[in-house]
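ARCHIVE CARD
Drawer: 12
Card no.: 0347
Subject: one protein chain, sequence and derived structure
Cross-reference: see card 0346
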Amino acid sequence: MNRQDGRVIRSEAPESWWEAVWTDAPITTQWDDGAYTGPGRGRTPSCSNSMPTMVFSMLSALDVEAGHRVLEIGTGTGWNAALLCHRLGDMNVVTVEVDAHIAAEARARLMAAGFHPKVIVGDGTRGYGKDAPYDRIIATCSVGSIPVQWVSQAKPGAVIVAPWGPVYGGEALAQLTVTEAGTLTGRFVGSSAFMRLREQRRNLPPTSDFLDENTWPAGGVESRTTLSPDDVGEWIHMFAIGVQVPDMFCRVSDVREDSYRLWLFDRGRTSWASADYVRGEASFRVVQSGRRELWHELETAWRWWYQQGQPDFDRFGLTVDDRGHVVWVDVPANPVPRWAPGARVRNH
């Protein structure tokens, strides 16, 4: 599943290769934007073939009909484009891939299988305007912001399906409809975990920009909390927290069998917090430093989610209009509250 195994080459280990292909799991097909090609694993997966059940659920959400024209963002191996071609015909499918090598391999693979969609090498955030407008747009990479080009290249009433998630973590599949006014609105239809669109990758500052971990607690203000760091780490928790505190991100260190340290940082490099989880404890040590109390913000965001009845992804929705990206619960008139950066200042 999400645990990466070492490299498997079909000619060297055909049985293992076929076992991987027929497993309902994502398969990494590129590491480090192609910089690493050796055995084992590279540092960061940069292209994959999505798990089949996710591919099929996304195509179900896309809900294509005969005659629809589809723009796909992220060609990858070409499998998803092949499925779209089989359903709609080659002339109705345009797929955009930022990596020229991946695009060339996908094009050759598609041709060998008898499919001939238009494969474009380019930045997916720009879509592909020459063949617009489209009835459907599908992204096989995640975003934190729906590019305006996708909306402008879609017909009124078109459906856009894209994995969407905040900086903090957590991600879900958005099924959005383009309105006559050129806005987007719709619900999340299930959790997802995709590689980020390259132009929207999270370039987060290193821990060393905030403190030297070896000097922790580094003059921070210490307190205790009864909210366990282990109770706020599910995918839905991270989504709900990240939507409310859009500039916060987290890391984990000092992982042992029964303990670890959760770190919180803000992208503005003004504040940090740590919370130490120890299995079996009833309260947990918190240290906070800087202009903001990030653990307090996380705790407040988590408690809001809990008080809403612990909504899962299918109760959340997304509207994209002149206000930006607004996440809501149950109905658009119930937007999720957001912490403005720096809204809470220490009063100790």
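Annotation on reverse: Residues 344-348 have pLDDT under 50 and may be disordered. Residues 292 and 344 are 6 Å apart (CA to CA).
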